[in-house]
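Here comes my example:
=====
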Amino acid sequence: MHRHGRSDRASALWGLALRCLVVSGARKAWLFGLFAVVTLLAGCGGSSYTKGDFVARADAICTSTLGQTRALAPPSSTSQPGGALAVYLGQLVPLVQSEANQLRALKRPSDGARDSATLTAYYKALSQIVANYRQLEAAAKRGDTQTVTDVEATLRASPIAALAASYGLQTCGTPGSTTA
């Protein structure tokens, strides 16, 4: 009898499970929609995006921009602002701005407080680099040798390469890249 009681209980549970699986069209559509939303959210999930993903995407952006800047014909000298330097910077500044925009558009990974602070400092330095390049371009167009010299010194003293390397960025932190 006890065995028969378990069998009746198992049959009842099995029957309930089957009834739950056989649902009306509206309920089936609702469940399918719920499943689709859950699947979509799981696919976009925050924790699946890692620091490594961010670094790979950022370095790809910097590699692309570096290739574009190396294709530009650099001026033979920066000691004579105007002409060639102004033309070169007129081509370079939009590339630097685009790179900065693309880097800022990347989703930030959920990482530790130290990494987050380093990335925030990197973005702040990146904004300063863009501003410096704009200032350098304006000075070159005016033929302002002193400002060109001062801004070049500011660019060389920027902490951006160290911040990029500290975060784990390879190309973005390479001296000679557009932002370092």
User: Anything to note?
Assistant: The two ends are 82 Å apart (CA to CA). Helices lie at 2-21, 25-43, 51-70, 83-105, 113-142, 145-157, 160-167. The chain has two domains: 2-43, 51-173.
